[in-house]
Amino acid sequence: MSLLFTQVKSQVTTRQAAERYGVQVNRSGMACCPFHDDRHPSMKIDKRFYCFGCHTTGDVIDFTARLFSLSLYDAAKKLANDFNIQPLPPGQSASIPKLPASIIERKEEQRVFEILIEYEQLLEKWKEEYAPSDPMDENPDSRFVHAVHFMPPLSDAIDRLFSSNSNERKAIMERIRSTDAVAKIKEILNEGCQEVKNDGPEKDRAA
Ligand SMILES: [Zn+2]
Question: Which of 42, 127, 161, 170 is disulfide-compatible with 52, CB 3.0–4.6 A?
């Protein structure tokens, strides 16, 4: 079974499957998410997929399983069938090839990058929505304070991760790892989503 998964994943990208199954992907690789009520493209689709709206993510098999409400195994079989993937003869490349470390690192950078972009969008929103109406306000909303405080280093981190210089990227990834920043950001993002649903967290939560 895992061989089928490996073969499907190595031969079909999520983008190919999405297009084949009628999900329109624009030139920048964005599509309207089929898993939530999405009016503007908020799903990034490439080899894998990630929705900035509902946060669903996964590979081509996860995508197909969700789209057709299938089990992962049935989704893999469907993909193998639809994309005419032939099983390899026994003994031939039956072992799962290990990804080179550089590719694994690049994937991790991509994952962190997506989280940081989402965080930046949230902070931009906070900075606008919770800005004090009186600039002399001594007790501005904590979300505004948080946004003003964290946006400069965040933009810097995003710039560096976006850089084509692998040493820069490496340095910023090391810094991010050492501070556990991604886990903290994810927590804030989750609360940010709750906030949309519940119409506002307690005032001092995000500080
Ligand atoms: Zn979505």
Answer: 42
